[in-house]
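Input/output pair, single chain:
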Amino acid sequence: MSAQIDAFLAMLAAERGAAANTLAAYRRDLEGAEGLVGSLADADRTTIGRLSQHWSDLAPATVARKGSALRQFYGFLVEEGVRADDPSATLPRPPARRTLPKILSHQEVEALFARAELEAESDRPPALRLLVLLELLYGSGLRATELVSLPMAAVPRDAPFLTVTGKGSKARMVPVSTRARFALTRWLAVRPSGTRHLFPSRSASGAAHLTRIRLYQMLKELAARADLDPAKLSPHVLRHAFATHLLEGGADLRVLQTLLGHADIATTQIYTHVDAARLVALVNERHPLAGRGRGG
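Output:
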């Protein structure tokens, strides 16, 4: 990796508070571009423009993400005086289109919990851990990284809240349901001691926490045991289900933004698509003119 990319990533971490996963994504995109066209710091407009050919088979969202990484990188080089020009104008700009989130039905969520609760009746630590993970993903809407990295210090004692560190190292408090607290109490009774993480890994040192990859695997294995399609389930799908089902229940969009840890409410508004039918019914039933015929 070039020194310029290294400096750019350091700036993102120090000045913008970029999370580790965000930095890793930028690293992959920038290193991938260098692997295709050579040194990015020395590339001219024509060279950068050739990336369009290399990216021709990629999804528009992927192209947009890679292009954004390069534009920010060159903006950084210009600000730092490393370059006098910005060659990123030749990069493609695919039309922005935000895909709708995948969600689970209420019946599918119930099937997952029924299976997890049945297995947890054995009081085996792996089964109790999985039940808590499921409760916090669907019951509190945590991101996968936020969940697996939870320290013991985040566990509530009296107040029914978790203190979560999200993107950009921003802390927020999320509610923990009564049933989730009960599952958490059962897990804490069997959780390995001597570690700072709520969900420690099985590493020899005990210093690490459960990985996101292992969390994905556990959920997909649970889906199969619950007779659901494993391809439909992931930590993010459960987070989407949390948001969608709360909106269906009448939750306020601003409250949902806070719970999800979204910096911009525009990100939260994508969930309103699932509630379109309820909103139409609400207008038809509650609008002052709803009971009047077309002729007045």
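Strands lie at 161-165, 171-175. The first helix runs from residue 3 to 15.
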